[in-house]
Design brief:
- Pfam families: polyprenyl_synt.
- Its cofactor is Mg(2+).
- This is Farnesyl pyrophosphate synthase.
- One of its GO terms (molecular function) is (2E,6E)-farnesyl diphosphate synthase activity.
- The chain is built from 14 helices and two strands.
- With about 350 residues, the chain is mostly helical.
- The protein has a single domain, classed as Farnesyl Diphosphate Synthase, CATH 1.10.600.10.
- A two-stranded antiparallel ribbon has the order 1-2.
- Strand 1 and strand 2 form a beta hairpin.
Length: about 350
């Protein structure tokens, strides 16, 4: 194990220590002491859905705080940055539990989706809401005496609002199945709101709020850069949903049968012949194994995998160039770390 790997391991272990602390805090809220069974259920919901991912969003929050704070970094604030990182991870869990129900997904991170666990079904909707409500209990406990508490709440609520609207557009687009409206413009709007804001902008925005950075020009530059990272991330997700190794991704793809406005479909529609387009429109969005394989064959025949590789290389190069153009008072190492974590990812 080299130094960078050892550091990453140590950072994750320290991050996990904070998870156990805040999970314990959530189970010991005095006003909820007369609901022991529900508290234990919350523990089960948290432990199943929150700590088992790569934790890139949470760890990016911590790294962002360290780099923005510089020589003003304190041990107390570093612990608070860990807490904020877990707020982002819990928000992610809330979105994933909800998304899996809406998409009818089977697995997540190599195990059955939460709503599939013990045949929970739609009762899991309330569990998703429990997860979201935990965020504000945590923020209240750890930050209510901080001058930036209201701003933290504003940032978290705003990004949650944007993400829910993005999820709505994504879900309704798939339900309506008006495939003639599946354009790159619509795709970009779905991705921007469903994925980019909470996955890439939120961790940095929270760290900047902690450190008192509120220059609109700085925020705009950071937002534009992180949204580009998020777009690349979602295109990768679309590709892995179709062509990824389930044993690596831990998730069985459903984009084709869910009639998603995905990067692959939009790109294919621009490339295909009239005959291929007719076939694609007839078989896309149908939950039938033969038709799903037929869609994948059309994608392969059109060279979509090669087009994806070309896109990823171009997007990565463009993002790195924009990092170099950042103002000198912004931590370039943070943004290189964020984009390098997702470049050429397989899960």
């Amino acid at each position: 194990m080299d130094k960078s790997q050892a550091k990453a391991k140590k950072d994750r272990e320290e991050f996990m220590e904070t998870y156990f602390k805040i999970a314990k805090d959530l189970l010991e809220i005095p006003e909820m002491a007369d609901m022991p069974e529900t508290n234990q259920w919350l523990k089960k919901v948290l432990d199943y859905n929150v700590p088992h991912g790569k934790a890139n969003r949470g760890l990016s929050t911590v790294m962002a705080y360290k780099l923005f704070a510089g020589d003003k970094l304190t041990e107390e604030n570093l612990k608070l940055a860990h807490v904020l990182g877990w707020c982002v991870e819990i928000l992610q869990a809330f979105f994933l539990v909800s998304d899996d129900i809406m998409d009818g997904s089977e697995t997540r991170r190599g195990v059955p989706c939460w709503y599939k666990n013990d045949n929970l079904g739609l009762a899991a909707v309330n569990d998703a809401l429990m997860l979201e409500s935990c965020i504000y209990q945590i923020l209240k406990k750890y930050f209510q005496d901080k001058s930036y508490y209201a701003k933290l709440m504003e940032v978290m609520l705003d990004i949650t609002y944007k993400t829910i609207f993005g999820q709505s557009l994504d879900t309704r687009t798939g339900q309506d199945k008006k495939m003639e409206t599946y354009t790159m413009k619509r795709y970009s709007a779905i991705v921007k709101y469903k994925t980019c804001y909470y996955s890439f902008y939120l961790p940095v925005a929270l760290a900047m709020t902690m450190t008192g950075i509120d220059d609109p020009k700085v925020l705009k530059q950071v937002q534009e850069l992180t949204l580009e990272m998020g777009h690349m991330f979602q295109v990768q997700d679309d590709y892995l949903d179709c062509f990824g190794d389930v044993n690596v991704t831990g998730k069985i793809g459903t984009d084709i049968q869910d009639c998603k406005c995905s990067w692959l479909f939009v790109t294919a529609m621009d490339k295909c012949s009239p005959e291929q387009k007719k076939e694609l429109l007839e078989i896309y969005g149908i939950d039938d194994d033969d038709k799903i394989e037929a869609v994948k064959k059309i994608y392969s025949d059109l060279g979509i995998p090669a087009a994806f590789n070309k896109y990823e290389e171009h997007a990565y190069k463009q993002i790195c160039e924009k990092i170099e153009w950042l103002r000198n008072d912004l931590p370039k190492d943070l943004f290189y770390d964020m984009v390098n974590k997702i470049y050429k990812r397989s899960s």
